[in-house]
Amino acid sequence: MIILKHEQIVVMIILAIVMVLFAPFLMNTKSAASFNPNYNAQDINLDISETSIQSLNISKDITSFSITGTIKGSGKADVYLQDADNHQLLIYSGTQSQKPASITGFAAKSDTDLFRNVCEETCYFTTENHPYSLYVELDANTSIIINRIVYK
User: Can you give the pLDDT of all 152 residues of the chain as single tens digits?
Assistant: First the structure.
C-alpha cells in the first residue's frame, strides 16, 4: 500500500484541477466558439490555389475574426478580412517552410503546415461595414485550405 504525504496529496489535487480547467485548450479540438457562446464558428472548407476573393456569410458587424487551416507549397500565403469598403485587415501571413506547423507551436514534418485560430490584425477590431469577404493572396505553387472561421 502506498502512503502519500499531505504535501503530495495537495500537489496532486492542484494538478488535477489545472488539468480539468485547461484540458480543452490543450487538446485544441475546437475553437473559442466551443467555450464562449458569444463567438460564432463556421466550417467553410475553402480550398484555394490562386489569389481570389471569397465571400463570407456574415451579416452582422464583428469585432474579432480568426481562421484555422493548412498551407501547402513553397510560396507565401496572405489572408485578409475585407469589408464592404475594401478595407483589409491581415488575418494570416506565412509560408509552409517558414513557420511552425501550428500557431500554438506544435510542429509536424509534412508538406503541409497547420495553423489554428490565427488572427494577426483581426483579434480585436471595430468596423461597421459588412458584408465581409476573405482576400487570399497566394504565390505560385502555393495553396491554402481554410477549414473554419470564428468570429464575434
Answer: 566 677 777 777 887 776 666 554 444 444 444 456 688 899 999 999 999 999 998 888 889 999 999 999 888 999 999 988 899 999 999 876 544 444 343 444 456 788 898 999 999 887 777 889 999 999 999 999 999 999 99
Facing residues of 78 across strands?
93, 137
Maximum alpha-carbon separation in the chain = 71
- Enclosing domain of residue 78: 31-151
pTM as predicted: 0.69
* 14, part of any domain: no
Residues 6+ apart with CB under 8 A from 20: none
CA angle 84, 89, 94 (to 5 degrees): 135
